[in-house]
């Protein structure tokens, strides 16, 4: 019996091309910026609480790694978006990309601010970290929708 959900997924190819044995590299990489954006906010809150410069330095490293690993993940995501027709054709993919690029701008600004002025953490750095948390939620949620609602990146078996 035909399954309408599987039929919609298979109408245009949505399987990942930037993948290891069919598993999308983008999905493997995004865990790093997500965790590091949250960690940056954690460092700022500990810095506020303790005034220990250690947390200022930790926030500088967390935001820097969040930015560069986010860029790496975004390159893999952008390659999928441009190369795979079934991904390119879905509005949801572009909504996710816009949220992700906005996120990367915020994360880059957060790192750049700290690089030039370590005292920027309170209050500006903390506020940028909070904005980063909002956008990591938005970008991550929309990325999840691509997989769970639109079946993007799945290896669909003809037996299913
Ligand atoms: C321009 C940048 C980006 C583009 C074009 C993009 C594109 C995509 C695509 C096509 C997918 C479907 C899975 C796949 O085929 O790999 C996806 C999934 C996802 N993306 Fe992105 N992405 C970008 C950046 C980001 C960033 C920075 C994050 C971090 C918050 C992120 C979080 C996610 C998540 C959480 C998923 C679901 C993965 C899963 O559930 O396994 N994306 N993205």
Automatic annotation (TrEMBL):
Lineage of source species: Bacteria, Pseudomonadati, Pseudomonadota, Alphaproteobacteria, Hyphomicrobiales
Pfam families on file: DUF2231
Bilayer-crossing regions: 27-49, 61-84, 91-109, 121-141
Organism of derivation: Rhodoplanes elegans
The protein, known as: DUF2231 domain-containing protein
Source organism superkingdom: Bacteria
Keywords: Membrane, Transmembrane, Transmembrane helix
Residues covered by the DUF2231 domain: 22-153
InterPro entries recorded: DUF2231_TM
């Amino acid at each position: 019996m035909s399954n309408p959900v599987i039929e919609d997924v298979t109408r245009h190819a949505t399987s990942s091309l930037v993948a290891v044995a069919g598993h999308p590299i983008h999905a493997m990489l995004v865990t790093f910026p997500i965790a590091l954006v949250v960690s940056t906010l954690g460092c700022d809150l500990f810095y506020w609480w303790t005034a220990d410069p250690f947390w200022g330095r930790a926030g500088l490293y967390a935001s820097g790694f969040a930015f560069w690993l986010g860029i790496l993940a975004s390159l893999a995501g952008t390659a999928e978006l441009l190369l795979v027709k079934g991904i390119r054709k879905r509005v949801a993919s572009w909504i996710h990309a816009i949220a992700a690029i906005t996120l990367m701008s915020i994360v880059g600004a957060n790192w750049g601010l700290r690089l030039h002025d370590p005292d920027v953490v309170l209050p500006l750095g903390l506020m940028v970290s909070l904005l980063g948390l909002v956008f990591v939620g938005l970008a991550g949620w929309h990325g999840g929708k691509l997989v769970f609602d639109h079946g993007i990146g799945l290896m669909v078996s003809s037996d299913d």
